[in-house]
Structures are given as structure tokens and as C-alpha cells.
Design brief:
7 helices, 160 residues, mainly alpha, 0% strand
């Protein structure tokens, strides 16, 4: 039987894992049967930043991308997968998409991290990095009980 703290931890992670997991599952399934033109567009875009991806067949690249997204979704949606594992998978994937954002010309405004209109689709993936790191920290610390408030350290200091 799981302890109360394990249930609290699972309940705290549930909204993050469900929303991001559902998003990834939809994205992975939608790429699963991509036609040749869509597969080539995806591969060309990715290989502009990550040249080694250009060596793959476009359809194979898209199938691998789809499988990767479905694997991340599975890690997030199955509660038996530890938060650290699910968070690490999500963090790794989001680092790849943020790399595209940072290194692909036209994604950011000149001399800035602010996205162009074309870059918004990738810039928004910063939330995936935040969720992934949060899951890693939550799983690694075994945090239980209510989350501390931002005033917690100040209250303790004032109590002296």
C-alpha cells in the first residue's frame, strides 16, 4: 500500500503529467503517418540545426521523431514511471526543440531571445523544460507534503 506522501506526490504531479503527456501523445500520433512531403519538411528543418539528421531517410526520421514523442508521452502518462525518469525524458526532448529555437535563423529577433512570429511555435516549448525539471526535482527530492510557500524561509527567520 502506498504511503500518504506518495499519493500526495502523485496527485501533485498529475496535472503536469497528464497535460504534457496528452500533448506529446497527440503530436507523436499525428506524425506517425506523415506523407513524404511533410516528412521532408520536418527533416529539412531539423537538419538545418542538427546536420547529422540529414543523413537519415525523411520517412525514417519522422517515424523516429513520432516514436520518441510517443515514448515521452508514455513515460508521462503512466504513473508507474518514476517522476525522475519521465522528467528526464521530457527535459532531453525539450532541450532538442529549444536548440532548434536558439540556432535556427529567423526564429528569434535580431540580438534577442524574443521570438519572431515564426519562432513562437518553438519558443513556447520552454514550458516543457520547466515541467521536466520540476518532475526531476520532485522525484529526486522525494518531496512530500504541501509545497513550501515563497514566504516560508522568511517566516522561519522572523520566528528566530
Amino acid at each position: 500500500m502506498a504511503s500518504g506522501s506518495a499519493w500526495r506526490s502523485a496527485a501533485r504531479q498529475l496535472p503536469l503529467r497528464l497535460t504534457v503527456g496528452a500533448f506529446f501523445l497527440n503530436s507523436g500520433l499525428s506524425k506517425r503517418d506523415a506523407d513524404e512531403a511533410a516528412a521532408q519538411r520536418l527533416q529539412q528543418f531539423a537538419s538545418a540545426t542538427y546536420p547529422f539528421l540529414g543523413k537519415l531517410d525523411a520517412q525514417k526520421f519522422t517515424r523516429l521523431l513520432s516514436t520518441g514523442e510517443i515514448a515521452v508521452a508514455t513515460a508521462l502518462l503512466l504513473p508507474v514511471i518514476p517522476a525522475t525518469v519521465a522528467g528526464a525524458a521530457l527535459t532531453a526532448f525539450s532541450c532538442g526543440t529549444l536548440g532548434l529555437y536558439l540556432h535556427t535563423p529567423g526564429m528569434r529577433q535580431e540580438g534577442s531571445l524574443r521570438p519572431t512570429e515564426q519562432g513562437i511555435a518553438l519558443a513556447k516549448d520552454i514550458w516543457m523544460l520547466g515541467v521536466g525539471i520540476s518532475l526531476i526535482v520532485d522525484g529526486a527530492t522525494g518531496h512530500s507534503g504541501p509545497a513550501p510557500t515563497a514566504l516560508g524561509p522568511w517566516r522561519r527567520m522572523l520566528r528566530g
